[in-house]
Design a protein that fits this description.
By secondary structure, this protein is α/β, with parallel strands linked by helices. Helix content is 44%, strand content 14%. The chain is built from nine helices and ten strands. An eight-stranded mixed β-sheet has the order 3-4-2-1-7-9-10-8, with helices on both faces. Strands 5-6 form a two-stranded antiparallel sheet. Helix 6 links the parallel strand 3 and strand 4. Helix 6 packs across helix 7. The longest helix is centred in the N-terminal third of the chain and has 28 residues. The radius of gyration is 19 Å and the shape is globular. The N and C termini lie far apart (53 Å). It binds adenosine-5'-diphosphate, aspartic acid and magnesium ion (MG). The site of adenosine-5'-diphosphate has 19 residues, from loops.
């Protein structure tokens, strides 16, 4: 049975999971955290993969068959990462099998979209969710490679959406999510790091839903609330939440501390570093969110928590 006290949730965005080297770096962050706390990890799709899947889904719905080239592209990308992560033949076989199974499901779903000749939200949700179902086994493997037991966990077993949820932009049902998450994680052996697929959740009938683009941040905070985590760490490619998008404003400065309400306002105004719906679950439970840079792990990042009252002087 897995104890759920002093849990920390670490989420790695696609920007932090591009190839074997960056997946291995993410695994090292997880290992560091296991020295201080129990850890649940959340994996986004490898960089650019969800965009590729969205394009393929659009093309299929428009009657354009790009299924085999996409399958080949994703196969090469993920198998290359697998081979860069381990030389162990047994590990390679096991993870390659899971990659191939996910790709077969993807081919079937793209075929369904092509046949329908129009967008079908549930099929599109499964197509886009394939990115996380491909990446989580790789991050779990990288953690095992460092000597710590780890398993991929499909979020379909943990996160529950509200009734009548939009399959492409679903809202979560916190109580059902709490019960399902606690029940499923209790089946993991003690000391095993669960590596959860970000972005996706279960519809009430068990079908796959998405939390909206960028929704893996919400996966992390919803899981943190479900297990009463001590904190959530969002590992990304910038030094934290900044005053502006550094890609468009080189003068953007890091904000060391933010209240939940301030962070939510920035996210709603378009600061892509956090999904707009990711703040609420952490705020409701009073769990701090730390935004950290995967490429500068020593950097303090941004801490989001209850707003301190500041007196005017
Ligand atoms: P991840 O793959 O880690 O989820 P995202 O691309 O979703 O990463 O979010 C990180 C990006 O958000 C940064 O590379 C940056 O360009 C962008 N961004 C936009 N506004 C801000 C902001 N105010 N502070 C920090 N990053 C921002
Ligand atoms: N992979 C998904 C996306 O690109 C979810 C995420 O990265 O947060 O939207
Ligand atoms: Mg993101």
């Amino acid at each position: 049975m897995m104890e759920l006290e002093t849990m920390r949730v670490l989420k790695f965005g696609g920007t932090s999971l591009a190839d074997a080297r960056s997946i291995d770096a993410a695994a090292r962050r997880i290992l560091d955290a296991t020295a201080e706390s129990r850890v649940l990890a959340v994996a986004s799709a490898l960089a650019g993969v969800t965009d590729e899947l969205a394009r393929a889904a659009d093309d299929a719905a428009a009657g354009l068959d790009r299924i085999q080239p996409l399958r080949a592209l994703l196969g090469v990308r993920h198998i290359e990462a697998l081979h860069g992560l381990t030389l162990d033949a047994g590990e390679r076989r096991g993870v390659a099998r899971s990659i191939h199974t996910t790709l077969l499901d993807l081919v079937r779903d793209l075929g369904l979209a092509l046949e329908a000749g129009r967008p079908v939200p549930r099929v599109r949700a499964r197509i886009l969710a394939a990115g996380e179902r491909l990446s989580a086994p790789l991050l779990a493997l990288a953690v095992r490679h460092h000597g710590r037991p780890a398993r991929p966990v499909d979020a379909i077993h943990l996160l529950r959406t509200r009734a009548n949820a939009d399959p492409l932009d679903a809202h979560l049902e916190p109580e059902a999510t709490r019960a399902a998450t606690r029940g499923h994680l209790a089946t993991l052996p003690v000391g095993t790091v669960g590596v959860v697929t970000g972005f996706l959740a279960a519809l009430p009938d068990g079908g796959t839903a998405l939390l909206g683009r960028g929704g893996s941040d919400t996966t992390a905070t919803a899981l943190a609330a479900a297990v009463d985590a001590e904190r959530v760490e969002i590992w990304t490619d910038v030094d934290g939440v900044l005053t502006a998008d550094p890609k468009t404003d080189p003068r953007a400065e890091r904000l060391p501390e933010l209240g939940y309400d301030e962070a939510e306002a920035l996210a709603r105004a378009g600061a892509k570093v956090l999904h707009p719906r990711s703040i609420a679950p952490a705020a409701a439970a009073g769990i701090p969110i730390l935004v950290r840079n995967s490429f500068a792990p020593e950097h303090p990042g941004t801490r989001i928590g209850p707003k301190r009252l500041r007196r005017a002087v």
